[in-house]
Amino acid sequence: MVSMPHLLSRSTQIALELLGSEIAQARRERGWSVESLARRASVSPVTVRSVERGAPGAAVGTVFELAALTGVPLFSPDPAELPRMLANSRDRLSLLPKRVRKPAPVVDDEF
């Protein structure tokens, strides 16, 4: 079976490149080599370079770890805010249905 390439939206591509650029900038400001950051994150230097280029193939956990190690804020400039933000998100999520189902087809019974 031939798989179709997954095309990313332009905004997703820009966000990946922006986050990668921020990670690269923070790494360089700290005076860390690609190899040094890779060692700290327990990933290969190829992975770090890929993330810094904005390539979409890296695991989200790896990207977040690289951002955290270099001090790049993800959701808030203050990392201490993250637990509160997570609790708020979980509270809002608990108000929504657990599953989303397809609506039942409308039956046209007009003869």
Helical percent range?
Answer: 40-55%
Number of DSSP strand runs: 0
CATH superfamily: lambda repressor-like DNA-binding domains
Mean pLDDT: 91
User: Element order, helices and strands?
Assistant: HHHHH
Main β sheet profile: none
The end-to-end span amounts to: 44 Å
Number of helices: 5
Q: Per CATH, which architecture?
A: Orthogonal Bundle
Query: Which spans have pLDDT < 50 for at least 5 consecutive residues?
Result: none
Basic shape = elongated
CATH topology: 434 Repressor (Amino-terminal Domain)
- Helix vs. strand class: mainly alpha
Determine Rg (CA atoms, Å): 20 Å
How would you summarize this macromolecular structure in one to three sentences?
With 111 residues, this protein is mainly α. It is 55% helix and 0% strand. It has helices spanning 10-29, 34-41, 45-53, 60-70, 82-94.
Q: Can you put this structure into words, describing what you see?
A:
With 111 residues, the protein is an all-alpha fold. The relative contact order is 0.11. The protein is elongated. It has five helices and no strands. The chain starts with 9 loop residues before the first helix and ends in a 17-residue tail after the last helix. It has one domain: lambda repressor-like DNA-binding domains (434 Repressor (Amino-terminal Domain)), CATH 1.10.260. Helices cover 55% and strands 0% of the residues. Helix 1 (10-29) crosses helix 3, helix 1 runs parallel beside helix 4 (60-70) and helix 2 crosses helix 4. It has helices at 10-29, 34-41, 45-53, 60-70, 82-94.
